[in-house]
Design goal:
cell membrane, Poly_Biosynth_Transport, transmembrane, Flippase, Polysacc_synth, 2 domains
Length: 489
């Protein structure tokens, strides 16, 4: 199997798993928001998860992605070092989880009171289990990515999504409320972690004959490379979670529910881009080491074009149908999420590019540069959130996200350009053509949307837009139907 076939195969496996994960997440969102929890309960659940995502930073640091990078490098050049790498990271993570989990258990009530919601204390106490389960699940996924066995990584992700759905709904129906949904998350991640660590141990760790000596300086380099990755991940979590936490601090749980719901919908839309970025990124490290920059450039440019081709019209369409979609599918109680979703539609395009690019920079050895960019924009995002949320409400958080992420994407693209020498003029022309086609599609959808009065008609409006876009994309030469059939097949 050549590299391109391997990428397509890995992309399909990752996309199927991501589809299962996102479908289960969508069903969980729908059932919880529409039937099982009111906006206050929904907001309380995801506010607690946002806080724990920040705490998780201290329990994981950047060790998972650092070891994935070195596994990718050493599994070919010196496979005997792979068991040493895995052993070092697992030991470090156990120590970190023990320290952070103990601190959280001791101070969970004080943290909840300091953030203005003492009622969140039970979530934070149970958060010790959440940290362990989530850490194990994500570590298994990333480590398997480092081995370039994306099918196994995909299985772990799919299990976590399906497990969360099953147990969260079951526990809420058992009368445990939002806290029951939280325990459903814990059980889902725990099952995924068990399966993932089992695959990692029996399928990979035991297959490598451990070298007699740990290569001198390798553990130090592993830890050193985790530092910029920690900075990047910290900034990424701040970007994704601090706004949710601040909405809860400055406003109320219902506002958290509106903002969280809008962000979850954008996450669903972004699944294909995340799958593609997760799939192609390990190849860049291998290609750079082999001096195959031309091939790396071709793969990245093709992927970027496809991402823009999909997500520019998707973002525009999402902004247009946001109101009928939210009020008809989720319910009138969540109408407050409409302006948030419309603003975050712009974030969809930006995050799609980021999903394609960020992991690739890590494998190209540019984690430090990306960390600096991410850190700067994350701090700017924090400042804008503090400024805008109290003044213009929950929409301010969405505006801050879009504004700061625009800068981060521009810097990321520049770093990739310095590494691969992208054809900027060609990319600009293609983007302009995509925007022109999207403009025609938008006019068509805008004409149809006022007629929408049911879910069936909403689906028809979306279908009209998709057909218009597809026809124009084929006629303009942006989409080759033959290539699409080959990928699907």
């Amino acid at each position: 199997m050549n590299r391109e076939d391997h990428i397509i195969h890995g992309f399909k496996a990752t996309l199927v798993a991501r589809a299962i994960y996102m479908l289960s997440s969508a069903l969980l969102m729908f059932v919880l928001a529409r039937y099982l929890l009111d906006p206050d309960g929904y907001g309380a659940l995801y506010w607690a998860i946002g806080i724990l995502a920040i705490v998780q930073l201290f329990a994981d640091l950047g060790l998972s992605r650092s070891v994935a990078r070195y596994i990718s490098e050493y599994r070919e050049s010196d496979p005997g070092q792979v068991p040493h790498l895995l052993g070092s990271v697992i030991t470090a993570k156990i120590i970190l989880l023990t320290v952070v989990g103990y601190a959280l258990l001791l101070f969970h009530e004080q943290i909840a009171a300091t953030l203005g919601d003492p009622g969140a204390a039970p979530f934070l106490a149970a958060g010790v289990l959440y940290l362990v389960a989530f850490s194990g699940s994500t570590f298994a996924q990333v480590a398997l990515q480092g081995f370039n066995h994306l099918g196994y990584s995909a299985i772990v992700q799919a299990i976590s999504g399906a497990g969360r759905l099953l147990f969260a709904v079951a526990f809420v129906l058992a009368g445990l409320g939002a806290l029951g949904a939280f325990f459903g998350y814990i059980v889902g991640y725990a099952i995924a972690a068990t399966v993932g660590m089992g695959i990692l141990y029996y399928g990979f760790y035991r297959r490598y004959e451990t070298a007699v000596e740990y290569e001198a300086g390798l553990s130090r380099r592993l830890l050193e490379y985790s530092i910029p990755l920690t900075a990047t991940r910290s900034a990424n979590v701040i970007d994704k979670q601090i706004d949710i936490v601040l909405v809860g601090v400055f406003l109320n749980p219902a506002a958290v529910a509106f903002y969280t719901l809008a962000k979850q919908i954008t996450d669903f839309v972004l699944a294909p881009a995340e799958s593609l970025g997760f799939t192609i990124s390990p190849n860049f490290g291998e290609q750079k080491a082999a001096g195959e920059l031309e091939e790396a450039r071709r793969i990245y440019q093709t992927s970027l074009t496809n991402v823009l081709l999909l997500y520019i019209p998707a973002a525009v369409g999402l902004a247009i149908v946001a109101e009928p979609f939210l009020t008809m599918v989720i319910g009138e109680d969540y109408a407050g999420a409409v302006p948030v979703l419309q603003v975050l539609a712009g974030f969809v395009v930006l995050q799609a590019i980021t999903n394609l690019t960020s992991d690739s920079l890590d494998y190209l050895g540019r984690a430090r540069a990306r960390a600096v960019a991410k850190g700067g924009t994350a701090l700017a995002n924090l400042g804008l959130n503090v400024l805008l949320i109290p003044t213009i409400g929950v929409v301010g958080a969405a505006i801050a996200t879009v504004a700061t992420h625009s800068v981060y994407v521009a810097v990321n693209l520049y770093i990739v350009h310095t590494e691969l020498g992208l054809n900027v003029i060609r990319i600009a022309r293609t983007t302009a053509l995509i925007c022109a086609i999207t403009g025609v599609m938008a006019v068509t959808v805008l004409l149809v949307t006022p007629l929408v009065s049911s879910l069936l008609m909403l689906g028809g409006a979306i279908a009209v837009g998709a057909i218009t876009w597809g026809a124009l994309a084929v006629l303009s030469g942006l989409v080759d139907p033959g290539q699409v059939r080959s990928v699907i097949g």
